[in-house]
Amino acid sequence: MFLVRGAGKILSPCCGKSMRVIGTRDRRSKERSGETKVYNLRRLSCSGCGRIPHELPDVLVPYKRYESACIERVLSKLLPMI
Ligand SMILES: [Zn+2]
Fold first, then answer.
1. 11 C-alpha vs ligand 1 centroid, how far in Å?
2. What's the domain range around 23?
3. pLDDT, average across residues 15-26
4. 10 C-alpha to center of ligand 1: Å?
């Protein structure tokens, strides 16, 4: 299980306001080796309008800037699943 968490504050793509964590969701990704990995993503709600944007890619674009190359590899596997 990989916990996918943004570093610092993530602003909503719709209003540019801070977002509230309203829960988590698991996303599965099949590795090339045949192994299935589970990524635990947060569900976020915009504090401006209450919309729930997609965790990916909107929420994780700012995240991607701050994190290691390892996380970028994880994201590159998750993005085709949207
Ligand atoms: Zn909003």
1. 9
2. 2-81
3. 85
4. 12
Residue 63 φ/ψ, nearest 5 degrees: -60, -45
- For residue 39, how far is its CA from the centre of ligand 1 (angstroms)? 25
| 13 alpha carbon – ligand 1 mean position (Å) | 7
When divided into structural domains, the chain yields a total of 1
Report pLDDT digits (tens) over 49-77. Answer: 998 876 554 444 444 444 455 556 666 66
Q: How many angstroms is it from 72 CA to the middle of ligand 1?
A: 26
pLDDT score recorded for residue 57: 44
